[in-house]
Amino acid sequence: MSHLAPTGKWDARYVGPVPHDAAYYAKCMLGGVLACGITHAGITPLDVAKCNMQVNPTKYKGLTSGLATLIREEGQTGIWKGFGPTFVGYSLQGMFKYGLYEHRQKVFADIALCPLEMTKVKIQTSPTGTFPTAFGAALAEMSRTKVETRYPFGSLVPLWSRQIPYTMAKFFFYEKIVQLFYTHVFLEPKETYAKTTQLGVTFASGYLAGVVCAVVSHPADTVVSLMGKPANKGKSIGTIASETGMVTLATKGIGTRVLMIGTLTGFQWWIYDSFKSSMGLGTTGGK
To answer: For the segment 48-76, what is each residue's pLDDT rounded down to a tens digit?
Structure first.
């Protein structure tokens, strides 16, 4: 019987068509690394512009003008600042977030991400020449100045405030939107459709879920960016939020972030489900 473990005893992990054993979770972890590390690193220019719009809105007024300013002042490398910690940090986060998807233990994913996210933001928002941009040198400087930067877990609370609602929305709305597609658009059983169709549903559902994610998590994302600003050194999270104001926290850089998070969330789910399909695990949702 499909619900029996190799020992012959009933086991919930074996109820579905694909056993949820150690090999299953290992494959999900690898899929998460590929999905999150590649997508977040690939949109580093958008992230650099968004962070600077949040920290220095008088100078960086919009996405296009912000990118132009960065390229004019720092060259092409200026828009790729923070690529290293972004790739490593979000690969680790993806490993835990998708690998522990069934367990909903995503809090631990953000603990792994926090030191690298703090380093990334510091690299991206520091004035030219005031902070190292090389990955290793930046980590060393964060450690050396940990009293000032609150490294490695000083941004954990606002990071959780951003990532927990973000991740809840990401998985909840993704699953609901997939369900709507297979209930109201594609009316036959999911397994009867080609993988290209299933992966198209995956991307569309991921993109729409990503738009919701961006909106609900944006105020906390702005706080995370502002914590790396030299002028906010030593200030509490509450003080930074109060001085900035809720309207600014919720709106500054929101357009860029909606574009950024919608795109990367769509591709994250597409890469994750493509990898799962190649491993014989099938696509996510819509059962």
So the answer is: 999 999 999 999 999 999 999 999 999 99
pLDDT for residue 243:
94
Task: Supply the pTM of this predicted model.
Answer: 0.82
With cut-offs at 50, 70 and 90, classify the pLDDT of residue 18: low
The whole-chain average pLDDT of the chain stands at 89
Cβ contact 178:201 at 8 Å: yes
> Do 117 and 155 touch, CB atoms closer than 8 A?
yes
* CB contact set of 243 (below 8 Å; sequence gap of 6+): 235
Cα dist. 72→41, 69, 79, 247 in Å?
Answer: 22, 5, 10, 30
Please state the φ and ψ torsions of residue 189, each to the nearest 5 degrees: -55, 140
In what helix (H) or strand (E) does residue 203 lie, and over which residues does it extend? helix 195-226
